[in-house]
Amino acid sequence: MPRSNVYSKRRQKLLNLIGGGIAILRGAPEQIRTNDTEYPYRQDSDFFYLTGYTEPGAACIINPNNKDKPFTLFVLPQDPKKEVWTGWRLSFEDTVDQYGADQAQDIAEFETAALEAMKTAAKVYTNLNHDKVHQYKMLDLVGQVRKQVQRTGGGPEGLESVGSLTHGMRLIKDEHELNLMQKAADISTAAHSKAMQACSPGMYEYQLQAILESHFVHEGSAGPAYSSIVGAGDNATVLHYIKNRDQIVDGDMILIDAAAEYDMYAADITRTFPANGKFSEAQSAIYQVVLTAQKAVIEASKPGVTFQELHDMDLRLLVEGMIAIGLLDGTVDEVIENQSYEEYFMHKTGHWLGLDVHDMGNYMADGESIVLKPGMVFTVEPGIYVNSQSKAPEKFRGIGIRIEDDILITETGNKNLTAAVPKEITDIEALMSRD
Ligand code: GLY
Ligand code: MN
Ligand code: MN
């Protein structure tokens, strides 16, 4: 099956949901890094999900009112002088062939075409994301249409988020997506094992980052799915520590939260291990609390369970464990009630995973937590973070631990996509052993 069929099936689904509306999407804008130099280009996830198109400068209109040609892709036209700098561009004919479009046009014609298409649409769905220029332009176009249809009637009253249609679709991964996600996971698990094995006191955090990211790229990934976190000692207690500049000291625990993006799909893995390959008593006490909670939550992940139930279970197990090892005082109910656990566990148990590392899709619907269904993929990532300024018993200070795996809900339970990196204490110690 040609790859473009994957996207045309999704567009067909969208057309079934869209009623008398149309979808007008803009690809992600390029982002300047310094002066006139851009960051590597990454397509907008919703745009990619519906078109498969990964080049900059594009837009599309999906218009059920245009019966013969519901899908128009707008792209940068061929321009030999520019292509010398940024690479070859497909002709409009080849764009039609390769992306299964009904027609391809010059991006310069996009706004006029959008305005025209809007006039007969009951609703206009667009991607409302961080591209404010696109959003203002779309609002401006709706305003223009309103003036034009004032005496004739019809036309949209405002803008709708295309996410209200696509994000529900993206929550359930199809087979094509699951293959790519497993590949992203496989590249990432191997990279974690490599970094764990290579680690020794005296190295720098960025050297572990280099091992991970070199493996990602070597295996065909575009690079990290998010900024790699490699935190040694107290740095492991900073949730989004991405500086990765410090030297690793004997006795540190190292937290690595890093994973590859493969063909636009993210993995998201965290492992925490001792720099010298041997857990101390205090390190293993906290580690075992996190691991017990993580394994129990994964075990409980199956169709019919709600996302909130998993978080509640995780929180209760972490609190039980923290009380047992002397990190928190009180009963489990008291600690949950007074939220004193938030000093050491301050984030949620997990998030949806897919094209975006924090993937789109609601966690609540009609005031209720989402019920897990086959095809959903999410992370399970409990953690305990005791920073050096904490009033906790001294032996626990400067230890941050998170363990994170990527879980696919199946018909009968779940599949851990990232199970290949060791997380049992004995397995980590064996992998890191120099013997
Ligand atoms: N790596 C980001 C997260 O775990 O949510
Ligand atoms: Mn995560
Ligand atoms: Mn993560």
Task: Describe the protein in words.
It is a single chain. Helices cover 37% and strands 17% of the residues. It has helices spanning 4-17, 45-51, 80-86, 92-99, 110-118, 132-149, 163-171, 175-198, 205-218, 281-300, 307-324, 332-338, 425-432; strands at residues 22-26, 32-34, 37-38, 59-62, 71-75, 103-106, 124-126, 159-161, 223-224, 229-232, 253-257, 260-262, 265-266, 270-274, 364-365, 368-369, 377-380, 383-386, 399-402, 405-409, 414-416. The strands form 7 sheets. A 6-stranded mixed sheet has the order 6-5-4-1-7-8, with helices on both faces. β2 and β3 (37-38) form a beta hairpin. The longest helix is centred in the middle third of the chain and has 24 residues, at 175-198. One manganese (II) ion binds at residues 257, 268, 270, 404. Residues 226, 257, 268, 351, 357, 381, 404 line the site of glycine.
Please tag this protein with its features.
binds glycine; three-stranded antiparallel beta sheet; about 425 residues; six-stranded mixed beta sheet; 21 strands; alpha+beta; 13 helices; binds manganese (II) ion
What topology does this entry show?
Layout: H1 4-17, E1 22-26, E2 32-34, E3 37-38, H2 45-51, E4 59-62, E5 71-75, H3 80-86, H4 92-99, E6 103-106, H5 110-118, E7 124-126, H6 132-149, E8 159-161, H7 163-171, H8 175-198, H9 205-218, E9 223-224, E10 229-232, E11 253-257, E12 260-262, E13 265-266, E14 270-274, H10 281-300, H11 307-324, H12 332-338, E15 364-365, E16 368-369, E17 377-380, E18 383-386, E19 399-402, E20 405-409, E21 414-416, H13 425-432
Parallel strand pairs: 1-7, 5-6, 7-8
Antiparallel strand pairs: 1-4, 2-3, 4-5, 9-12, 10-11, 11-14, 12-13, 15-16, 17-20, 18-19, 20-21
Helix pairs in contact: 5-6, 8-9, 10-11
Bound molecules: glycine (GLY) and manganese (II) ion (2 copies).
The site of one manganese (II) ion has 5 residues, from loops.
